[in-house]
Amino acid sequence: MKSDRIVCVGAPFFAAGEACSGRVWCLLCLLAALATPALRAQPAADAMPPWPADAQIVSAETLRQLLAGRTFQARLTNGNGWRFQYQGDYLFVDLASGARDKGRWHTTDGRSCVTYEGRFPSGCSEMRAGPGGVVYLRRNSTGEIVTLRPE
Predict the structure, then answer these.
(1) Is pLDDT at 64 greater than 60 in this prediction?
(2) Same domain for 114 and 64?
(3) What's the total number of domains in the chain?
(4) Using alpha carbons only, what angle is made at residue 46 by residues 44 and 51, rounded to the nearest 5 degrees?
(5) Given this model, what pLDDT does residue 5 score?
(6) What is the pLDDT of residue 82?
(7) Do 74 and 135 fall within a single domain?
């Protein structure tokens, strides 16, 4: 016996294994399943790891002074390395993978913004000041707090 019902799998809006019937419901099931990865692409605000206890929110001017003319090294939790070099109005970024880019940067209160010239996505990241010239950066893609250590 042939069934005209489709089981909706992988969509959080439907119960596991819930069957849909009719074109509209099946289309909604498909759209929900396709949208799920996009909905999970940015971490939820309540799922973000906390800032280190010594991290301080600073003004745009103070953050600019902490970054300008300096070079920082960072190691991500996945082991990849970053190198940030702030020269004048430009930020030069080198990744351990060999990828590199540069762009114009500026600060706002508690954030650093970059307009990259190449393939890196432009945007702003939350930043906090730490002790000894350390700067903390929250990755937009994962929420991970990355420690930028001065060279």
Answers:
(1) yes
(2) yes
(3) 2
(4) 105
(5) 44
(6) 96
(7) yes
pTM of the predicted model, to two decimals?
A: 0.69
pLDDT, average across residues 49-75: 97
46-56: buried (b, 16+ CB within 10 Å) or exposed (e) per residue? eeeeeeeeebe
- In 3D space, the residue among 113, 4, 23, 33 whose CA is nearest the CA of residue 67 turns out to be 113
- Rounded Cα distance between 79 and 104, Å, is 27
Residue type, 79: G
Residue with tokens 């396709």: 34
Q: What kind and span of H or E run contains 87? A: strand 81-87
Residue 46: predicted pLDDT = 60
Q: Do the Cβ atoms of 109 and 94 come closer than 8 Å?
A: no
Same domain, 35 and 52: no
At 86-97, the pLDDT tens digits run 999 999 999 999
- 138 in the same domain as 97: yes
Paired residues of 115 in beta bridges: 104
What is the average pLDDT value for the chain, to the nearest integer? 80
Tokens 């954030």 -> residue: 111
The CATH number of residue 131's host domain is: 2.40.128.640
C-alpha to C-alpha distance for 108 and 86, rounded to whole angstroms? 16
Claim to verify: residue 71 and residue 97 sit in the same structural domain: yes
